[in-house]
Amino acid sequence: MSLGNNIKAVRKEKKLSQVELGKAVGVSRSTIANWEKGKASPATTYISKLANFFNITTDYLLGYTPTPQFTRKDERDVQKIVKNLLDDPNINKYDEEDVRLLQASFEKVARTSKLLAKKKFTPKKYRK
């Protein structure tokens, strides 16, 4: 998804109007509308403000990761875990559809584990 689509999706998920979001980050409703339509792009300071306001990473907002709390490094870690699991020689005995289902399951478990670990091991002073 594009930056504008991500802003709109997160805004709607949080049940905010464009006016409310604009007030929160210090821009007008029309600016938010232009960002969402792709007619303009927010400056990096506003991307950071949006990410902080929504409590998500800038990587997610920019479309680099599919999980709101993941950085690119977290995403690489998940893909590495899944690749290692799929490299098991016993995987070859399953058909292609089963392997895809296993891959999806492995990704879900790796993402969930990573999120739980982040929550558990992040010092309180860095939690939002």
UniProtKB/TrEMBL annotation:
Organism superkingdom: Bacteria
UniProt KW Nucleus keyword: no
Signal peptide: none
Entry-linked Gene3D superfamilies: lambda repressor-like DNA-binding domains
Family matches, as PROSITE patterns: HTH_CROC1 (PS50943)
CDD domains linked to this entry: HTH_XRE (cd00093)
InterPro entries referenced in this protein's UniProt entry, alphabetically: Cro/C1-type_HTH (IPR001387), Lambda_DNA-bd_dom_sf (IPR010982)
Domain HTH cro/C1-type, chain residue ranges per copy: 7-61
Keyword DNA-binding: yes
UniProtKB keywords: DNA-binding
GO MF entry, a single one: DNA binding
Name the UniProt record assigns to this protein: Transcriptional regulator
